[in-house]
Amino acid sequence: MPEHNPAVESAMEGELALLTPKVRRSAERVAALLHPDFHEFGASGRHWSRAAIIASLAATTEPGARPVAVFALRGVQLAPDLVHLTYDTEYDGSRAHRSSLWRRTEGRWLLYFHQATPFSERPT
């Protein structure tokens, strides 16, 4: 069952911020939300390092871009310093199931790991 507590709410706030064009365009803002050991398996199948994702987002996010649509955001605190989030996104017709791990580091919640898996709805 989804859990709502300050840790989960902080992780959700950070996750949603990372999906906004304003934050994505700013290498400084993205870096402030990523753990030093961050890595990601993207929807493309590519493995992203912290430095690579910061550079890519800053270089490819257009000033007038619309935010990523988020559905069914849920979170659970797995340990005192660890939160797991899951949700679905849609952007430019592409959909992905997403999973993130947020770690509390020096009193701040930072994104430690992220994975996206593409999906399409099946006809009913």
UniProtKB/TrEMBL annotation:
Which residues are in the DUF4440 domain? 16-111
Gene3D superfamilies documented for this protein: 3.10.450.50
What InterPro entries would the database entry show? DUF4440, NTF2-like_dom_sf
Its taxonomic path starts at: Bacteria, Bacillati, Actinomycetota, Actinomycetes, Kitasatosporales
| Pfam families according to UniProt | DUF4440
The domain of life is: Bacteria
Can you name this protein?
Nuclear transport factor 2 family protein
